[in-house]
Predict the 3D structure of the following.
Amino acid sequence: MMAEEARTLTIEITRFDPDRDEVPKTQEYEIQVQDDWKVLDAINYIKDEVDPSLSHRWSCRMAVCGSCGMMLNGEPKLTCKTALSDYDSKLKIEPLANFPIVRDLVVDMDGFMEKFRKVKPWIVRAKERAEDMENLSEKGTFSQSPAQLASFKQFSMCINCLLCYAACPVIANEPEFIGPAAIALGHRYNLDTRDEGDGQRNAIFRGEGTVFSCSFANECSEVCPKNVDPAAAVNQAKLGAVVDWAKGLILPRGGA
Amino acid sequence: MAGAAHPEAMAPPKKGATRTAPPRMPGSWWGAPRIRTYLLFGATGIIYLLAGTVVLRLVWALGNGPDAWDYALGSLSHPLYLIFHALTFVSLIFVGVRAFGTMMPKMQPRNGPFPPLPAAAVRGLIYSVWALLTLLLSLVLSGKIF
Amino acid sequence: MKSLLLKLEPIIWLLFGAGLSIGTMLLTGFVLIVGLAMPMGLVDAGALDYTRAYSLGSSLLGRLVLLGLIALPLWKGAHHLRSLSIDFRGGDRDGIVGGLLYAVAVCSVIGIVAVIRL
């Protein structure tokens, strides 16, 4: 460790041990940090050198795996993508907001996985068609133009890091709401020309947990580390629902 | 209020073996600048409700004849009305900028017949319509045209 | 009530969106002249004496604009207050606050009556 680049930083971290603690508490760590560290480096340093009892999730260290999301001074961020030099005096690290806390900085993701599965984030075909399988080697699997790909590519960049769920004021208050990432990914498959599952996903989008719960705080898009812009997906899904509703007025059977 | 989120927020479908601490709101939720803007955006709802009611009152008076109309129009010079309308005007600009600048460009369908326009183009288009409509309505209401 | 509101959600949002966009665009000029400039004496109040106001307001376009000026801001306001009340955990989506939307819908109908009465 090079002394001239190091400085002392006090980091306040949420601690919660379900066996001992009634409620989460905070613990302060005063450590020597280096200027080129990411926040995750500091947490790893504390875990390795200061307090091995600290629990947190991380994996890839390059903003791809989406495991290391935490609240930094109240704002959800990927700790591997956030420079420690952004925080000169005070840094408060908490587990992602809006999620049940399992231990220290680890949250329970199962609620998200359930919502996520509901929107069927995979290609759904109306039925497995014989022609899908025929002559695969000649025509390739499915052809899709660059423009068709561009229509949804942005939404497919989601890494399920849950920052948008931690930021969303509707998620905080309305447990049924399906939420930003699930809508963005469901919408991504609805836009995919190869997909035929719109009906099943729209039943979720327009049923309980409806996309209309969104009150356009735009926080999801503000905090998204991959520029997915879930708020755009939500609004396009709303508009789609309105268009289908109008179609249903004109063509009562064929529309929606 | 760094308080608790809804106790059921992001709750797992089945309770796990270990006890979990309930979900919390982000610490600086109410104080964060973006959230404050968002809450203010929602709060303009009160202004809009009242503004719609004022127009309703005027139209009702217009239907009641000249005396009622003159009285209703005259009452708008009351300082409280003036303050309210000044506040309304500020709200209108604020709502317009947030809705037309941020919300509308995102709403363009991606799989429509035309490729989506760049956000700046949508913004420019809507802002010009807004300005033109305001100009037109102002000229008509102040008796310059028609 | 719950499933009814859920079914009506697209139209509620459409009216909210119309209030947000068309309502804002119409109100800006209206408030500028009728709410501010005229009472402050910057614009001659004679421009909206009864005869002219009536002929403007009772034309087909005038009625449509007036209806937009009444109903659309009401819907925008009601929907925003409903969202805001959820943000402050003041109500469920389908509780009393959601019912406020219906009250506003009734107000819009009174607005329609007022406009037709002209």
Observations:
- The interface with chain A takes residues 6, 9-14, 80, 83-84, 86-87, 89, 93 of chain C (CB under 8 Å).
- The two ends of chain C are 35 Å apart (CA to CA).
- The longest helix of chain C spans residues 2-37.
